[in-house]
Structures are given as structure tokens and as C-alpha cells.
Amino acid sequence: MKKETYIIAVIEVLLLIISLFQIYVVKSFNYPIYLLILFVILGISYYFLKFDKRKERLSKDILLIIGIVVLLYWLIIYIVGYFSGFLMNSYQRSFFGITKNILYGFGLIASSEVMRHMFLRRRNDNKKIFVLSILVFSMLEIVTKFSANQLDSNVQILKLLFSVVVPIFSKNIFLSFLTLKVGCVSSILYRTLMELPLYVVPIIPNLGYYIENLIITILPLIILLIIYKLYYSDDGKIVSSRMYNKINKISNVIYSFIVIILLGVVLLVSGIGRYIVYTIGSASMEDTINVGDVVVIDKKDKEFEENDIIAFYHNDVILVHRVIKIYKDAYGTYYQTKGDNNETADSWLVKEKDVVGQYRMRFRWIGWPTVKLNEWLLGGE
Q: What's the pTM value of the predicted model, to 2 decimals?
């Protein structure tokens, strides 16, 4: 036992030295080399410590709790983002860039969490190893966020402390607890669900600097509190392992709710029923309707007045423009239309038979993935 403790301490101190060397000496981050170093140390750790394969009875319960809470987290912040606005994601948007970021990100997650598992599950009675592990694995992640070059003022130091160091330490307290109690699968799941989507989504909610960092700091502590309240007594002993069915029922309700929402979206997109939705890919109606907005069109309403916004076919393309003049003759009704952001009216008249319906409402930004995918498929044209 003492030998294992000594080996773990030596490896963790080595990782800590590598982290500090990266921050203060190298000062520029290279993901492939960093991952290679981590996998080499992972191999050394496995050689000396092996992998603890014990299965804990609470693992299913905790995996479900993590899945539910993280799912609710993403759902809530994007609902809030609808009102607060969205920002373009700064990560690479090409297929190669997204794939590379996911592979690098998951490589860092897997190597770190498997090592954490080997260290804590081997010496689960050693508080010093627990505390040292929190410090070491926090530093391994902090290294990927900044270097000493960014510490050029007190303001920068405070900003990095609040936006990087504190949230990462909070998360690693939670991850170390998870690993100690049920193993690394739960910690890998949490980090995968929280971190990897950021490499994929084209837009992120604009929650504000302080709110965003406050949320990611307290979220892991909230999950930790939920787990403790549900399953553990004050002395740390398991008091119940019967929550799985209850949690499973809750998760089924949430999943059913999501399925209903998805079915509603399918119905809207397919145009079955009264309403249909379209994603706006043109700036012709800004600022009334912006690129990336999803508009809801009422197909039943075909009685229009001047200033109404309508959707119509023109050269087999759906356009959404404003009616500025209505003409009627013996052959039918015609609409003169114009985009709010266009200097002149459209050079054609819209026939009554080409009208899809009247604009009712918009959902800001949520159509950006469709717009960007279309641009990518068409080569940016």
C-alpha cells in the first residue's frame, strides 16, 4: 500500500511539474504533443497501478442523474439565449476542424479521467492523494486554457482566476468525488456532455461573462449535492440504492417530452397542418427578420393587406418579403413585395397561387446550423 501511494504521488508530482513547465516555460500550447505526453504517463500509470474494475451499485443511478441535469442545463441556457441573444462559436467550423477538436478534446478527457480513476480507486482511503489529485488534474486542464504570457496585469489575473481557475477547480472536486465513488465512466460522461458539444454548435448563448462562469462553477456542485442528498448519510455511507427506478421514471418523462418536441418540429418542417417553418438564409428582411432566424408561416391565412409579410414561391425558391402594394384584375390578385433591407421593390408581381401563407412569428438564430450547413455543402456560395 505504501508503495502504491509513493508511485501515485511521484506520477502526480511529475504531472504537476509538466503543467507548470507548460505554463511558465513553453508558453505556447501544442495539443498533439501534450496528448502524447499524457498517454505515455497513462501507460506508465497502468503498468504500475493497473485498472480497478470493481462495479459500484450506484453507477447507473449517478449516470442517469448526470445525463438528466446536463440535458436540462443545455436546454435552459439555449432557452435563455433566445431572449439574451447568441454569439458565433469561435471554434473552427469546417468538418476537419470540428473532427480534430472533438478527437483532441475526448483524448484529453479520456486520458485524464482514466488516470484519475487509477490514482483514486487504488488509494481511496488516502485524503492527501485525493487533494493532490484535484490540484493535479485541475492544472492539466488549466494548461489548455492559458499561458503565463496572458498574466500581464492584475485585471487579467483576476479575470483568468474567475473564468478559468475557479470553475475548473470546482469541476475537479466534483469529478474526483465521482471517480472515487463509482469510477471514471461517470466523470467521462459528464465532461463529454459538457465540453464536446461546444466544438460542434455554431452558436452559443450570450449569457454574459459573470453569469456564464457562475453557472459552470456551481453546476457540478449542485449535482454533487443532489447525489449526496439522495444516496449518502452524513458519515458518507450509502443509505439508499433504490432510487434508480424513480430516477429512471423522471428520465423517461424528460425523454418523452423531448420526443414530443421533436415530433412537433418535424410536423412544422414538413408542413403537415396549418403552419410551416422556414429558415431565413438571406439578409433582405433585416432587421425585421435576420439570417438564421426560423419563421412560422400560417398557410390558412390568405387574406393579406399592405404591410403584411408573406412567404411565396419565386423561381422555385421560397422568399419571405413584405407586401407594399396589392393589385386586382379579372384574372386574380397580385402582390408587389419588397425586402425591408432592399433599396428597391422586387421586379416581379407575386401571383395569388404562388403565396404559401402569412408570416406569424420568428425564432431568433436557431436556424444558423441549417444556414451554415447549406453554405458548407455549396462551398460557401
A: 0.66
